[in-house]
Structures are given as C-alpha cells and as structure tokens.
Write a structure and sequence with these properties.
2 domains; mainly alpha; two-stranded antiparallel ribbon; globular; about 475 residues
Amino acid sequence: MIPIEYLILITVFPPLLVCTTTPFLSGRTILRDLLGPIGGLVSSWGSIKLVQAVLDGEQPKLEFLQIAEGISIGFTVTPLGALFGLVASVLWIFAGIYSVGYMRGNKEKSQTRFSTFYALAVHAALCIAYAGDLLTLFIFYEILTFSTYPLVTHKQDELAQKAGRLYMSILFGSSVILLLPAIIWVWVITGSLEISQNGVLDGKIDPKYAPFLLMMFVFGIGKAALMPIHKWLPAAMVAPTPVSALLHAVAVVKAGVFTMLLVLTNVFGIEFLSKTGASFWLIGLASFTLLTTSVIAIYKDDIKARLAYSTISQLSYITLGGALASSLATQGAALHIVTHAAGKITLFFVAGAIYVGAKLSNISELNGQGKSMPLIFIAFFIGSLSIIGVPPMGGSWSKFFLMLGAAESGYFFVIAVFCVSTILNVYYLLEIPARAFFFKKEKEITAKVPLLITIPTLMTCFLTILLFFFIEPFQNLASLMVGK
C-alpha cells in the first residue's frame, strides 16, 4: 500500500524525470519519443489515485520546507487541484503521442530540446495543481512561464522571437508587478500564505479594499488572458501546434484559470465575494472579454488564430463562473476546465493535422477538403459541438451549471451573454467543417496525415463524448470544492 502523500510524488515526478532524461537521448529518438507518453501514463495513474482519495474525504499533503510560521513550500491536494491535476496528466498522454507525430511529420528541428521543455511545463502545471499555499503556487507559476518560453520561440525566427518577447513581458511582468504584491498583501493581513476552502480574507480585510486586492490578483494572473492582457496568447500561435495544444488545454491557460478560480474560492471565498460584491466589476470585464473575443474570432482566417481567440473567450467563462460567487456557477467553472480542455485540444490537434497533412493553415483554403481528411474534420466537428455546449458532448454540462449559477445569483444579463456567445461559437467554429464538407473544392490536394497525429486526435474527440456520460466524478470534485 503506497502512502497517500507519495501519490503526489508519483504524479509530479514523471514529467521532471522525462525532462532531465530526454537531453541524453537525442541520438536514440524512439526511446526519447516514448518517454512522454509513458510519463503521462504514470502521472495519470497517480492523479487518478489522488482523485479517489479526495473523493473519499482525504486531503493528501506533502511539505518540503517550512520557511516561517504560515510560510512553507509543499503540496496539498484540494478538490479543485485534484481535478486540474487529472486533466493535465491525462491530456499529456495524448499530447505526447501527438507531438511525436507532428514534429516528425513536419520535420521540425531541435526536437530533443522541444521534448525537454514540454515535459518541464507539464511538471510545473502539476505542481501548480497541487500547490498547498500561495508561495508554492507562485514559484511554479513562474517556472511554467520560463519553461514555455523556449517552446513559443521554438522556430527561432524573427516572428517567434517577437512573440516570445511579448509572451514574457506580459506574463512575467504582470506576475511580478501585480500577483506577487497581491500575495504579499494577503500575508500581511492574514499572517499566512495558506489557503482555505472557505477563503482566508473574511474579517481580515476592509470590504472596501477587497475589490482592489482582487484587481491585483486578476491582472496579475496573466495566463487567464482577460482583456487587456490577452495579446500574448494569439501571438504565441507562431509556435508548433503541439505547443498551442499545451498552451490552450494542458498547462498554461488552464493553470491561469485554475489560479484565478483558486483565488476566488480559496483566498476570497464565495460567501465573502457574495456579501461584499467585490467581484461585480470582474463579472462585467469577463462578460466583455467573452463577447469581444468571440466577435474577433469570426474575422480570423488563420485556423490557430481563430482558435486562440476562441480560447480567450472560453477562459472568460471560467473566470465569470467564479466571479458570480454562486456555488452552482463555481462548479460550472471547474467543470469547464475539464470539458474545454478536451474539446480545445481536439481542435488544435486537427489544426496541426491539416497543416502537416495538406500544408493548409487558412480557413478560406479548406473548401471541399473534407473528403481528403474525413476523420480529421469529423473530429473538429465533434470537438466544436462540445465547445458550443451541445449534448451529448461534455461541454454541455459546464455551460448548464454556469447558466444555473447565473440565475441563482440573479445576474440574468449573464445568461444573455452566454446565449449570444454560444451563437457566435456556432458561427466561427462550424464554418470550418461546413467549408470542408459542403463547399465546392477549389484545388486538388493529396493529404497524408501521420497515424501518430490521427490516433490522439480521434481519442480526444471520443473523450469529449465520454465526458457527457461520465461527468459524475468531476462533478463530485466540483461539489466538494464549494463545500457541498
């Protein structure tokens, strides 16, 4: 019987081991390429065991260093952390397989370096998921930023370098200038950097200052990509598609909205936000970001650019769910981390498949190409339905809870925002399979999609359907998160 705290190490250690081992295997490509998927399997086993432990009422803990009273470095598995850790570890399996197919199929250079930093980014994301306090969270939040910079700039051309500078300046700058001072503020008024299921600020901060502290957290968490600190995300699409999948589904933006939701629930607390109205302004900002980026997505012809703005919009669903300060909306936000990850990684996998198989990257070039890659475009269609929220796709559950939460909080205009956004989702996502299957072909293309790209794409596509029928464990974790 493995001690429960060791399950944390079993989950977070494999990607670190892959990261440190990969550089020594540059001449043994098969073994190097196997490490990622194998590491994902081991991490996934550990994360599943941690989910089971949390559902059984346990709280796995592992402390490494006690710096001072209330300040330590260690891990504590919360229900929200267990959920995010499961998402990151499981999707790493598919992303690892897909990365091999893409990097080989596209004949990308520096594949060993790519695999090394890819694994380090997954390690940082898992450590964020299980962070037991704000200091541990901040340390691995920064490690995630620095580990993904070489991935964003992988191509080493002028465009990639420019995107990398924007990426680092926004993410590192916002965290150092705003997130770190916000964490210090919490420590000053509470005497601790520990977090609690019911929040730690009630009775410790004057309610009139709470919106300003929340503002520092919100704009300090640049990875959540709220306007106006969102521009790094579309710019980062110059990276290879596996990086885009990592950014949007496995690690970076999911770490951002996870941190945002953790701050809203475990630092401020749902009840505190509800009675003080400290998050009212955030409801407006998230709604504005949600709708505006959906409109912008319509006008993007590049597939990855359109999906990037779609991601910004979908991230705002999660932030908005937490800002509503409703137990149902917060559960919906947590579920959206899961369902959006499965749907969006499928869409990015398809974008990469189209590029590798047919060297097409613009939506206007896809007319009539459905017959050359039928399974790929069907996967895009199914993934899109999940993002839109159509049953029987997993995404319908999270949007259902979010709408119930908006009604529970009395913010009926938010329901209207969700409805308008859903219509826009239909417009900019379903245009792609519609062009592929129903428009007249303009040019003949012989598409060859590698099997290592096709298989993980179809598997994550199938996962979006499975989530509809097997959402209960995730919903139970979301319920525990809000104390139900």
